[in-house]
């Protein structure tokens, strides 16, 4: 019965939750007590959709994955609770600054998936940086001594 379910739920609630719904416990509705209790607990204690989305996306970072992989993960976690613009802004903040600056030049009109593909190419190029090293050229005196005294000393040694 409705009253049995209502009482059973109350018996399993934490003290914090009981305090939050104490008004319902003191004066429950005449009908649909269980449904009312359930809906009020959810309304009062559940996170808003925006807060749920924030929790789902918090802690994400690019790490070793490609930008497109990060975007797909974010889309999966968002479960259609976020607009493309919301995901775009959040995703861009997780990319390296140099990549973000380049993508900003492309503008907001580019579809998010195309932006992710471009970011993949940019990070791919950055993953294999070109190393350029130079060595000092030997000085003239080290190659061939021009000093006649030095030449004589070398000849005497041999």
TrEMBL record:
Residues 2-57 form the DUF7041 domain. This is DUF7041 domain-containing protein. It holds the Pfam family DUF7041. InterPro entries: DUF7041. It comes from the Eukaryota.
């Amino acid at each position: 019965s409705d009253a049995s379910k209502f009482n059973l739920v109350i018996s399993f609630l934490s003290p914090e939750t009981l305090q939050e719904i104490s008004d319902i416990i003191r004066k429950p509705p005449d009908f649909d007590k269980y449904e009312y209790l359930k809906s009020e607990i959810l309304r009062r204690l559940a996170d808003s959709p925006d807060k749920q989305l924030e929790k789902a996306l918090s802690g994400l970072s690019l790490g070793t994955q490609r930008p497109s992989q990060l975007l797909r993960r974010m889309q999966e976690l968002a479960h259609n609770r976020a607009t493309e613009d919301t995901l775009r802004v959040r995703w861009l903040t997780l990319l390296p600054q140099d990549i973000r600056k380049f993508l900003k030049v492309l503008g907001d009109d580019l579809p998010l998936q195309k932006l992710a593909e471009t970011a993949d190419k940019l990070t791919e190029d950055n993953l294999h940086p070109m190393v350029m090293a130079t060595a000092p050229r030997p000085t003239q005196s080290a190659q061939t001594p021009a000093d006649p005294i030095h030449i004589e000393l070398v000849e005497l040694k041999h």
